Records
---
Amino acid sequence: MRTLVTGGVRSGKSRHAESLLPATGPVTYVAPGPAIDDADWADRIAVHRAARSASWTTLETHHLAVGLAVEGPVIVDCLGTWLTATLDERELWEAPPAEVTAVVRRLVAEAAAVLTRRTADTVLVTNEVGLGVVPAHRSGRLFRDLLGLVNQELAAVCDQVHLVIAGRVMRL
């Protein structure tokens, strides 16, 4: 089963996504986010790690297709941090929008191709960005537009999409 779990920040989507996979079996937890030298960020990561089963393995990679290619159940948390890392790594924040979109589309197509071949349970966590105001800055608008594209492309190859709001789950 391939499941995309979306929702707002602190909606409970990670907790829900983790509950979709076996707590006692082997699971690969793909952490695709950027490396940030920030105490608050480090604390958030520590809390997430402490909540995970000891039988789960963490794979830190910015290459989404590589993370999805591992054997067995996989959780990717989250696509928003993956997108940020991708834009940072390739220095695309100020690039022309068409160039940025082409790069992201190519990477998402690679990930979607791997995802469609997976037979083990796979859960993708992402942020829902379409419910807020239009960001005031270019980088915010770029991120919102690209993550919306990423979410749509990967949802199209998932068997289920779950929307989490205030800890409550709606299966779409």
Note: Helices lie at 13-19, 39-51, 64-68, 79-89, 97-117, 138-155.
---
Amino acid sequence: MSQAAHAPVPLQIPVIPVRQILPWAVFAGLLFVIVLYFVSTEQGALSVFDGTYLHELVHDGRHLLGFPCH
């Protein structure tokens, strides 16, 4: 039984245009900034929401990321 030698197929890396990536990159950046605000600044001098519910919700994440809160 003989086996035919096959040439290796070159690896094709897909090309994604910047026009397709840019909206998702902007969305991810905006989402990151919003999450960073709530974890780092909310319940401080620039508090948007009253009460301590949001502070307690992100309390452990705040300490995990190194933001002091009390």
Note: Helices lie at 18-40, 53-57, 59-64.
---
Amino acid sequence: MASSTIADIIEPRVFTPYMQENRPEKLVMMERSGILSAPDEALASRFMSGGRKIEVPYWNDLDRNEPSIINDGDTAITPEKITADDLIAYKHRMAKAWASKSITGMVATGDARSPMEQVASRVNSYWSWVKEMHIMNIATGVIADSVANHSGDMVFDVYQDVASPAASNRISSAAVNRARLTMGDAMENLRAIGMHTHVYATLLDDEKIDFVQPSDLPFQIPTYMEMTVFYSDFFPVSTGTNSDKYTCFLYGAGAFKHIDEVPSEPTIYGNMGTEITRDPNTGNGGGEDQLITRRYELLHPAGMSWTSASMADANGATFSELATAANWTRKYMRKNIPISALEVNV
């Protein structure tokens, strides 16, 4: 007797490219703003090779000492040297599986396939959320390193733990400019801002959000001070005694070196990016379908190096580990790391 399975609704060789092409709005906005940029060829070529990390050598900038003054004496000029260093970028190799007993769909809708049809329709949204969480937690870790080791030179704070915050404690153009100023004369490089939904609502209430309609996109892009705005309920919130502290992140062009791959190695069930299986014995013979999806990702903040100082599993970092100061160390000058933080009330 024939039995409908997940293979009847998902063709892995079709579904995998669909996940790559059908990007959700927030990811499109991030790509359009330029904060996600492709790494150079040397780094990209090592992404799919073996190992958990990529070591990236680079030349330090020339010093900023005064030049020598030429004179008619016999003293020889003392040459300076250029130095090299390296930073470590971490590879994310991730998988997520969903399963459903056939009887579940039959009881819920009369169709054994319905739970997995719903799963399939939401897979791309799930992986988009994972990327957002990586971006937010990596930025949190970079800022935590700034606070722990560089006197908080990437943060501007107007937050006060008071029951009735003043306008000066909330997001404003003045506060945003001061957060941008942590980049020094590179402040104009910051072109996107991410914030909690409650902070975004403050700007909406004050009618400070402008909407831009690109000719090639089916949705509008919110902007503030000519910066693309991303908002989410998952941006950091710290609980205070009287009021909570909300952290906004400002991002510049190339803030993250980014590669996103859905693995395509062939398997008997489709490919490594999307695999489907069925166990006919589980559920006392009722059967169970499974959908497994995988992503390989490089998402590395410019100018920072991954230390691996605090990891439970050497094969990958959790959200909380990405947000940990000890796992990051600064390699570039502050103004060459296009990330800033603004801490506010709502």
Note: The radius of gyration is 24 Å.
---
Amino acid sequence: MARRGRGVDRDAGASPSPPGSELAVTAAQLFGRFIKQSRERAGRTQAELGEIAHLDRSMVAKIEAGERVPDKRQVVAWEELLEVGDELSDLWREVDWYPAIPRRDWFERRIQMEREATALRTYQNQYVPGLMQTEAYARAVYAQAVRRPDNLKRCIEARLQRQDRFLRQCPESPLLSAILTEESLRTVMGGPEVMAEQCAHLVRLTELANFIIQVVPSDCPTVVRPITAMSIISMPNGRDWVYSESVDSGHFVNDPAQVQELTLLYARLAADALSTAESAQFIRNVMEGFQ
């Protein structure tokens, strides 16, 4: 795919993995498969592996699915029980458990995760988030990088379609929490009319049960803000992923320590930002400035 400008998501031409295959097979999943196969060959149960490693059966199941990381002591205990020599320890040392992965299909992967996410928390410091953009605002953003009218039309349509799952008011609609800097509201895209319409749309979103929108005003020097935009994506399997972008790559991190650190940063930022009611009024004030 061609490079894109900053702030322009690549919705068009996406070919995500089939539903149910959240990501390509990871090293952690392959390690889990090796444990499962060794356990079945040895005629052992997940409960037996859990007992010797001081884990409950459900945690062993998650390790076999590649969703949890075993520690070295557990691996050594299982080697003896499963009679696999040092193979398990050797493999455990080789696995890169917490890769921060930039991938070619990074945006297709992001779209697929959005389709399955139970919650999405995002911090934006330059633009209104794509899932909250109006058609006119999205057109202005994409027009910076997409020149052909047919491609531009496809990009806009794809972006609006991504919003459907969050806008559909039903029990299954996932949480969408957004913290926006004042700069992201005042950066003019497409002219004053487009911005006024975009602000009005944000105000309407604040009235939806699954949307939480907060604003961080520019005159709050003590607020600690992330260096770049980021999203925390919660998946049905209980795992959280932190997503961020560089100029032409997306980066996904699920190292528990890093995810916890960034989740705490987001929580502190939410606590320091304006309340939802104050934020809605702030957006109205910005909107009046564009009218």
Note: The longest helix spans residues 149-167.
